[in-house]
TrEMBL record:
Region described as Disordered: 123-143
Compositionally biased tracts (Basic and acidic residues): 124-143
Name under which the protein is recorded: MarR family transcriptional regulator
Length: 287
């Protein structure tokens, strides 16, 4: 993906991209729209309307043949699908969650931002590989030095987009997404400058339904504490954001060389008229 590709590119839904992929397979033939609609599990109308939009954009001819510009756009969509899937796999996202995560990212995130996320992930992998020998030498100095190594030697100065997930660990060691996961934007950022290094999260409304009477409820995070060297510290919430210092986080390389960070947190939420008790979870972020 590059800026030139993305500048005037249509931003279709995942399903609409699938329409184009199916059109490429079936080609120009009688009843192709109906075939594509049947394959994608939709009625004839949505497919026909989207193809008319593509004709207006210059991607398709009136006979539903790809133009040069349309073929180029389809190639770009394929690359986006490939790169986002690879990105999520490097983040060790469970395979069953990848389709929904892809849908969220591809439909709701600007393509240039997606490109930046993918590029940062690749660059982080390259820097991690280059620093492998030095990192292994420092591992013997303990976890604190390992974190300092990451912040000082690998992490560049500036602001970096990261994905986050918050999991609750059950008694049988199984993990599942915590309710607190709904309480934050799933794209956060790392800020690393002369004033310090921290993970910055953006708070958002939590929506749920009462198990008692089915009433729809909403609420928000009321507090978050992070663990650092065995002690809990409360994060300050200001203007809908909170910060966790990177010195409280634990860093490691994933199976494909990507860098991930984790920190143990304790959160409390207000949902509806109820104040949810504090629960312990693991916040994971990745680049």
């Amino acid at each position: 993906m590059n800026n030139q590709d993305n500048r005037n590119l249509l931003h279709p839904s995942m399903l609409q991209i699938q329409y184009l992929l199916e059109l490429e397979k079936v080609g120009k033939k009688r009843g192709s729209v109906a075939m594509i609609a049947n394959t994608c599990g939709v009625s004839h109308g949505p497919v026909s309307r989207f193809f008319k939009e593509c004709i207006g954009k210059g991607y398709l001819t009136e006979k539903y043949e790809f133009t040069t510009e349309g073929a180029h756009a389809l190639l770009t969509y394929k690359r986006i699908l490939r790169d986002v899937r690879t990105y999520l796999k490097t983040m060790n996202i469970p395979e069953k969650e990848i389709p929904e995560k892809m849908k969220q990212l591809i439909e709701n995130v600007d393509y240039d931002l997606l490109r930046t996320m993918v590029r940062n992930a690749r660059q982080t992998t390259e820097r991690t590989v280059e620093g492998k020998n030095e990192q292994e030498q420092k591992n013997s100095q303990g976890e604190k030095d390992s974190n300092a190594y990451f912040i000082e030697k690998i992490l560049e100065k500036g602001k970096f987009q990261v994905g986050i997930a918050i999991h609750q660990i059950s008694r049988n060691s199984e993990t599942r997404l915590s309710m607190a996961h709904q309480g934050f934007e799933h794209l956060a950022c790392i800020r690393n400058n002369t004033r310090g290094s921290w993970l910055e999260l953006t708070i958002r409304e939590i929506y749920g339904r009462s198990r008692i009477d089915g009433t729809e409820m909403s609420g928000h995070l009321s507090s978050l504490k992070y663990e650092k060297q065995g002690q809990l510290y409360e994060a300050v919430i200001k203007n809908g954001k909170l910060r966790i210092p990177l010195s409280a986080c634990h860093f490691f390389r994933g199976r494909m060389g990507n860098v991930k960070g984790t920190v143990h947190i304790t959160v409390a939420c207000n949902v509806g008229n109820a104040h949810m008790p504090e629960s312990t979870a693991v916040l994971t972020f990745w680049m």
